[in-house]
Structures are given as structure tokens and as C-alpha cells.
Amino acid sequence: MTLARTLCYNRANMKKNIVIIGFMGCGKSKVSRNLQARCNLPRFSTDKIIEEREGKKISTIFRDFGESYFRRQEALVVKEVSKHQGVIIDCGGGVVVNPANFRALKKTGILFYLDATPECLLQNIKSGKARPLLKVPDPLKEIKKLLDQRRSFYEKAHYKVDANYMPIPKIGDQIIEILSTL
Ligand code: S3P
Known about the structure:
The chain is α/β, with parallel strands linked by helices. The protein contains nine helices and five strands; from the N terminus they run H-E-H-E-H-H-H-E-H-E-H-H-E-H. It has a five-stranded parallel β-sheet with strand order 2-3-1-4-5. Helix 2 crosses helix 9, helix 4 (58-65) packs across helix 5 (67-81) and helix 5 (67-81) packs parallel to helix 6 (99-108). The mean pLDDT is 92. Shikimate-3-phosphate is lined by residues 24, 28-29, 47, 58, 92-94, 131-133.
């Protein structure tokens, strides 16, 4: 039996969600897509749902309505997606800072924190989508500051996975390996 098959077998019994958390640029969306392709599970991205509902990109929502508006929409979406069973949830980087979000996700899911250094995060962010919180003169300094503020929240995940300069499939392997032992 392959790892992916073992996982699907276990998941059929378990029905827990696979929740991917971590700082901007750690690879959450790519890893959750990798897991989706390998495990054939539905996937929800909190950012994508917000963008679809608002009909705007995250950066435009921040610009037009501000961060607190975005966080309210984010909390609503987290509440909804947490009600699913047996799905993959790709969380925006700030989701778990809100204790209510964290509680809801943890109640129905297994949380995986993708851990990476500020330097690695910056490198990934440079080649990725726009991040309104990092539109500052010194993004590395801002990443370090925000990561210091958030690390304790991320560390409350069930599992910490090494995402430092790591190819996406290798990060997926680590998660599948853990899940196959549950
Ligand atoms: C944010 C992370 C972003 C997005 C928004 C705010 C954050 O998602 O939700 O820009 O506060 O860390 P990604 O982590 O997918 O970039």
C-alpha cells in the first residue's frame, strides 16, 4: 500500500481536517495543493474564499477597507470551513493569531505549522503574490518583527514541519508521513 493510500484509508476513519498554517511565504498554498493532488481531498483556501466573495484581491481589500475589515471576513470564513470534515484547509498567515479561529480549526483539524527562517520567507515572498503587510521599505525587518509576534501562535500547532528552503513535495512528504502514523 502506498503512503497516499494508507493516508486515505486512515482519513476515511478519522475525518479530521488537514490544516496548514504558518507565516506568509512558507508555502502553505503550494503544499496544500500538493496534498490535494496526492490524497484526492477537497481543499479550501481562506484567502481565496475571501477574494471570491468580495470580488477583489486581498491587497485591494486591505487598501479599500483596511485590515480589520479583512480580519472580520477571515474569521467568518474560518468558522465556516472549520465545520467541514476530511478536507484540507490552507490558512492565511494571520489566521491563527485570532484565538477563536485557532480554537475552531483545532477542534476539527490536525494543524501543521510550516516553519521557515525569515530569509527563506522573504525569498519565497519575492517570487509570489502581493502581501499588503509587507509593502514596507525593509520587508525582512518586518517579517522578523511579525514572526516574533506570531511564533508562539504557530507553535501551538499539533505538528511543526520543516519548510526551510525545502521543495514543496518534500514538505508534503513530511505531512503524509505524520498522517500515516495516526
Ligand atoms: C496575511 C497573510 C496573507 C493574507 C493577508 C494577511 C498575514 O496570506 O491572508 O495578506 O497576516 O500574514 P498568506 O499567508 O497566504 O500570504
